[in-house]
Amino acid sequence: YRGEVSGKLADDVQDFITQEAIHSREHHLLNNKIDREKYPVADIEAEVLERVNFGRAGGPMRMLMATICLEHFTSMMADLMFDADIDGVPIFSQTDPALERLWRWHAMEETEHKAVAYDVFLEVTKGWPSLKRYFRRSLSMLLITKHFTANIANFSAMLLEADGYTREEADRAVKEFLWKKPALFGRGWKVWLSWFKPGFHPWDHDNRHAMDDWKEALTPVPAE
């Protein structure tokens, strides 16, 4: 749909594409540092690619619907991630500083462009009846939610199994992490539910203040 947008939105789309390309590069580099003999990285990557190809096979609108729904999820999780704790202990308290910095940077970027794909959706469907637009995005979110949460849980459990958990123990640990402590999904349900409000827009949940804080924390301080 790049040819169907213009002005500031076209600029935003180009910035979005650039950011996503950088994200892919950084996570590809990270994945290559993981012990592939121990962890099932190749299996997970193959499953992700299969799902991406399924989306592409459905044409541009299916890809756009998947994108706007997944952007809602990732921005929601980014917003919740960095004040998350388990019994008062921040979830990144024992994380390598370089890895924590990567996740903070990624969260900031996800927040910064969280509305771009949605604005494209609004532009390319402006001729649709409002009820059709609402039904399409609502149905898409329900389907994406079902598959995305299941995939996240399954992939996380696969990694824990590689660490010696039984499948039952892994499933229980993932469920507790996502829904109880620190409850990235459990605490995010209000933001998730806001999607179904008529007239919804991603910046209705305005967390630009958090993005500014992250930018300040990630900006290198010049040497004196």
Automatic annotation (TrEMBL):
Name by which UniProt lists this protein: Metal-dependent hydrolase
Source species, domain of life: Bacteria
Gene Ontology molecular function terms on file: hydrolase activity
InterPro entries per UniProt: UCP07580 (IPR016516)
Record keywords, A-Z: Hydrolase
Pfam families with a match to the protein in the record: Metal_hydrol
Organism name: Hyphomonas atlantica
